[in-house]
């Protein structure tokens, strides 16, 4: 684990007629930008995509995970994020440098799975110009949910993520009619996200107190480790390990997800070769 800790909050408002999900992820998003050396525009795009990923993972529990993949055609980019039920997040975006992004086009894939099997797979087009619009479209078309999404990110001139937040307000079955819900959330459309999140931080949303049901930290985590690298090397067999030791003097592995670099020196390679038999 590393970097500043964010937060995910689940609650109810307006006499329990609406569900509220809120994400503050500037810490984890900044860690992603730092690890992958993203340019300011790429960092902002990755931060928005990470917030969307956490909102999409709001229903997972236990050992379930959500994988979110976005392929952009304009601009061309690839984004992947993984979120677990404990608030662990990891993500990457390539290329590391992008031009100013004014409109997005592409495709979004969401995969939910647990230790045993894939539980769900959904697809949606990114044709509404932003991850906010893509998530709004995904929830209404793929999930058949009536809700309103707001998300955004801001970076400084050096590419550090100083804000990455999001909010999902969803109508629950009950007395609130669809038209009344649309009227209720209308102020969310034009209001600055920073203002909305400031009110939420003080327990208020759309003129109603928020009943907080769950609050959990969000932190950048990755399942990579030196132990996993060594297990992979052991699977190569003694001859291949010794060949690495002789030809390269070490084995070097960089995690594709978090860019952590692992080096296994010659002495350790020789010990692993003996262990591999």
Can you count the helices? 8
Largest sheet: 10 strands, mixed
Helix content: 25-40%
- The CATH topology of the largest domain comes to Hsp33 domain
Write down the Rg: 21 Å
Number of domains: 2
- Sheet-strand content, in percent, reads 35-45%
Name of the CATH superfamily of the largest domain:
Hsp33 domain
Oligomer: single chain
CATH classification, class level of the largest domain: Alpha Beta
Task: Please describe the structure with a list of short key phrases separated by commas or semicolons.
single chain, 277 residues, alpha+beta, Hsp33 domain, CBS domain Like, 2 domains, ten-stranded mixed beta sheet, two-stranded antiparallel ribbon, 8 helices, 34% helix, elongated
Layout of helices and strands:
Elements: E1 2-13, E2 18-24, H1 26-35, H2 40-56, E3 65-74, E4 76-84, E5 88-94, E6 105-113, E7 118-126, H3 131-141, E8 147-155, E9 161-171, H4 178-190, H5 193-201, E10 204-205, E11 208-209, E12 211-220, H6 226-236, H7 238-248, E13 250-254, E14 261-265, H8 266-276
Parallel strand pairs: 5-12
Antiparallel strand pairs: 1-2, 1-12, 2-9, 3-4, 3-6, 4-5, 6-7, 8-9, 10-11, 13-14
Helix pairs in contact: 1-2, 6-8, 7-8
